[in-house]
């Protein structure tokens, strides 16, 4: 199970040097549900994630509560009528902070994202700026990235008719993504540049609603790319704890397979409305993990 990756610094912003939005007319003020907004995920009473929302039901704040019952980190989202226009992260313990500003055109496509990182503990680069510019050609999105340290990177994305990414092309490898009839990711295949299959990951789901689904739609692409940052190694981080890390699956993952072999099972307890209230992961290679979900 992933370990607090959402709060490692830049994650929703531009760690993956890529942040964009498809030509999606769904508004950010139309979340998937308003009766089951997640209030808290907790592995114990004093280790948990707490969530806040605005009057439209949009996620506005994520608080990471540490074992001393203090706020370890905080993320805030600022909206206009359609999109997230700013993300602000502050880490209390590491003295780290970042601000990402997003700008969109009239079709809700992201044109530019600028991430400013403040890391005073780094004497070489106490302030780092990453700028991304996006170009669109039918179902192809090209992301050109530059930073104040001189690094550059290009990522090419292909989207299907449902505006879901079905292919990501990097310089040394590419990823092909398949979906089930509900729009859940069912299989991920990673190939090298010579079309040799490197790894395959498969997912199965229940038929119950994922309570995190429907939020953060205007930053779908940066979250997708961030979840796929270690795709070359067959690692994808959206299962289990931290449901808003990748809130784009309509149902809840019940099993994870790697290269045809079972890796993990996920067992759920549900409330009367069929939303999960307890999640128990039973992996094959390490200790089981369990957490609870509380709703507003």
Rg is: 19 Å
Helix percent reads under 10%
What is the succession of H and E elements?
EEEEEEEEEEEEEEHEEEE
Count of DSSP strands: 18
Q: Structural class of the helix and strand makeup?
A: mainly beta
Query: Kindly, what is the distance between the CA atoms of the first and last residues, rounded to a whole number of angstroms?
Result: 25 Å
Task: Kindly list the characteristics that best describe this protein.
mainly beta, 1 helix, 18 strands, globular
Q: What is the secondary structure topology, with strand pairs?
A:
Elements: E1 38-44, E2 47-53, E3 59-65, E4 71-79, E5 84-91, E6 96-104, E7 110-118, E8 127-137, E9 140-147, E10 152-159, E11 165-169, E12 173-179, E13 185-192, E14 197-209, H1 220-227, E15 251-258, E16 261-270, E17 276-283, E18 289-295
Antiparallel strand pairs: 1-2, 1-18, 2-3, 3-4, 4-5, 5-6, 6-7, 7-8, 8-9, 9-10, 10-11, 11-12, 12-13, 13-14, 14-15, 15-16, 16-17, 17-18
